[in-house]
């Protein structure tokens, strides 16, 4: 009797395994990179470039369907911006250094920012794989000024917290690769501007103030991020 029960058990187990193969294949086929409505956790990332106050180039990672009870995705990004305007060299020199005006002015700027967003799936017009997003930003802006022949080179730094919101959509290229288009806006709160040995804060706190200059003067001199529209496009790759 024991052998007969074991034989039946083996037969039932084999049937269950055979029946489960098509079901497993069907679940796998349902996974689509960038599709925020699919079941099972997915991880994908990509590269984007676009326009804000310069040309931002970003790398990002998305965690999607982290929980069955949480139909949201989470995106983490690192961005470096190029083609930035540092600000007004002569005013920056007056506010942060001195009143000298000798030398030929030159300028450059760099910016790094970190982002964390929550993505919510929606249907935009006829685009089925779309989303809206909202999140926070941390921006590190550096303006560099040179006065050639005037023996003066200095940097001004500004670190800021910001908010971001927008919408985007994925367009399939292959089972693992999508094109991404996104548009939105970012707003950055005033940050302390520090350069040479001076610092100006929006709350009125100043260190080594030059003349009667205030934070508003420093803010006019330095083209730190404030409110800016943002348009990006790029490629997304699905890792699973």
Structural notes for this entry:
- The chain is built from three helices and eleven strands.
- The chain has 240 residues and is α+β, with helices and mostly antiparallel strands.
- It has two domains: 1-30; 42-238, Porin, CATH 2.40.160.
- A hairpin with an 8-residue loop joins strand 2 (55-64) and strand 3 (73-82).
Keywords:
single chain, 240 residues, Porin, eight-stranded antiparallel barrel, 11 strands, disordered N terminus
CATH architecture assignment of the largest domain: Beta Barrel
| Overall pLDDT level | 86
The ordered string of helix (H) and strand (E) elements is HEEEHEEEEEEEHE
Count of DSSP-assigned helices:
3
Query: What is the number of beta strands?
Result: 11
Described by strand count, sense and barrel closure, the largest sheet is: 8 strands, antiparallel, barrel
Low-confidence stretches: 1-5, 8-34
The CATH class of the largest domain turns out to be Mainly Beta
* Integer count of domains: 2
Give the spatial strand order of the biggest sheet.
1-2-3-4-5-6-7-11
Helicity, as a percent range: 10-25%
CATH homologous superfamily of the largest domain - what is it?
outer membrane protein from Thermus thermophilus HB27
**Remind me, CATH topology of the largest domain?**
Porin
Q: In one word, what is the shape?
A: elongated
Strand content: over 45%
Structural class call reads alpha+beta
Termini Cα gap? 47 Å
Radius of gyration: 27 Å
């Amino acid at each position: 009797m024991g052998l007969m029960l074991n034989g039946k058990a083996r037969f039932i187990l084999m049937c269950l395994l055979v029946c489960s193969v098509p079901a497993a294949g069907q679940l796998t086929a349902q996974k689509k990179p960038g599709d925020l409505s699919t079941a099972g956790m997915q991880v994908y990332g990509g590269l984007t470039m676009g326009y804000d106050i310069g040309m931002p180039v970003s790398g990002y990672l998305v965690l999607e369907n982290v929980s069955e009870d949480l139909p949201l995705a989470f995106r983490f990004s690192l961005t470096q911006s190029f083609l930035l305007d540092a600000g007004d060299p002569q005013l920056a020199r007056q506010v942060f250094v001195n009143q000298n005006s000798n030398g030929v002015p030159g300028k450059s700027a760099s910016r790094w920012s970190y982002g964390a967003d929550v993505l919510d799936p929606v249907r935009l017009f006829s685009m089925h794989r779309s989303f809206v997003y909202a999140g926070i930003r941390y921006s590190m802006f550096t303006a560099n000024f040179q006065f050639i022949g005037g023996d003066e080179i200095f940097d001004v730094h500004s670190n800021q917290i910001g908010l971001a919101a927008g919408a985007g959509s994925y367009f399939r290229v292959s089972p693992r690769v999508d094109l991404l288009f996104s548009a939105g806006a970012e707003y950055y709160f005033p940050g302390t501007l520090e350069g040479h040995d001076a610092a100006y804060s929006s709350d009125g706190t100043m260190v080594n103030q030059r003349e009667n200059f205030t934070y508003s003067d420093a803010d006019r001199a330095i083209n730190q991020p404030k409110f800016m529209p943002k348009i990006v496009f790029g490629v997304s790759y699905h890792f699973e």
